[in-house]
């Protein structure tokens, strides 16, 4: 009985040591540099940079795998902030990853929507609500303007509406009352 307890304790210690090593060796959560880089990125989660979201892109920048000029939504301002943060030279936005555009929010033409749910599945930030065979709508304050909902829509009922940059909208936040004022 004592031998079995010692063996189990030894296994638990070895497993704990291995997990502890892995947590230190492969850490990404809580890395201060990654967190600072991620804070500069626009949080659109659009994937235009070649990574599945802003956090993985921040991790790639921190590890040297990615350049600081791959984020079209962050644009020139974002590249300058990253260059300052990391002590690197400014490089223009990589054309391969897209072009800088004004901030926008998705708007669904509710008369045309057929309720297919493809836009809901494509939205990386859960900004679209609705049910199968029912009309869908965009929760404007949650929409990051990534445009990932447009391509899967079979009836082309989604449009991007420019958002004027104001104090409430400077970080992609969008007051629902302003939806009619967007141009």
From TrEMBL:
Superkingdom of this protein's organism: Bacteria
Cofactor(s) of this protein: [4Fe-4S] cluster
Boundaries of every 4Fe-4S domain copy: 29-88
Region (Hydrophobic) residue spans: 1-23
One GO term describing the cellular component: plasma membrane
Domain named 4Fe-4S ferredoxin-type: residues: 104-133, 135-163
EC class (word): translocase
Localization in the cell: Cell inner membrane
Molecular function in Gene Ontology: 4 iron, 4 sulfur cluster binding; electron transfer activity; metal ion binding
GO biological process, one term: electron transport chain
Keywords assigned by UniProt, alphabetized: 4Fe-4S, Cell inner membrane, Cell membrane, Electron transport, Iron, Iron-sulfur, Membrane, Metal-binding, Repeat, Translocase, Transport
Cofactor: how and how many bound: Binds 3 [4Fe-4S] clusters.
Keyword Transit peptide appears in the UniProt entry: no
EC number(s) recorded for this UniProt protein: 7.-.-.-
Chief location bin: membrane
Residues bound to [4Fe-4S] cluster 3: 123, 143, 146, 149
Residue sites binding [4Fe-4S] cluster 2 per the record: 113, 116, 119, 153
Binding-site list for [4Fe-4S] cluster 1: 46, 49, 54, 71
Complex and partners: The complex is composed of six subunits: RnfA, RnfB, RnfC, RnfD, RnfE and RnfG.
Job of this protein: Part of a membrane-bound complex that couples electron transfer with translocation of ions across the membrane.
Similarity comment: Belongs to the 4Fe4S bacterial-type ferredoxin family. RnfB subfamily.
PANTHER family tied to this protein: ION-TRANSLOCATING OXIDOREDUCTASE COMPLEX SUBUNIT B, OXIDOREDUCTASE
Name the record gives this protein: Ion-translocating oxidoreductase complex subunit B
């Amino acid at each position: 009985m004592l031998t079995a307890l010692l063996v189990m304790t030894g296994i638990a210690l070895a497993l704990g040591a291995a997990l502890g090593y892995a947590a230190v060796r492969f850490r990404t959560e809580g890395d201060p540099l990654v967190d600072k880089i991620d804070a500069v990125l626009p949080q659109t989660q659009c994937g235009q940079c070649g990574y599945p979201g802003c956090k993985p892109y921040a991790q790639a920048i921190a590890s040297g795998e990615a350049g600081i000029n791959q984020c079209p939504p962050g644009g020139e301002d974002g590249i300058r902030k990253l260059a300052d943060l990391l002590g690197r030279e400014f490089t223009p936005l990589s054309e391969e990853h897209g072009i800088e555009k004004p901030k926008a929010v998705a708007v669904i033409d509710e008369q045309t929507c057929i309720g297919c749910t493809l836009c809901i599945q494509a939205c990386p930030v859960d900004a679209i609500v609705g049910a199968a065979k029912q009309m869908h709508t965009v929760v404007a304050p949650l929409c990051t303007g990534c445009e990932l909902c447009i391509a899967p829509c079979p009836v082309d009922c989604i449009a991007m509406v420019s958002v004027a940059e104001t104090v409430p909208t400077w970080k992609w936040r969008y007051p629902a009352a302003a939806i009619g004022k967007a141009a």
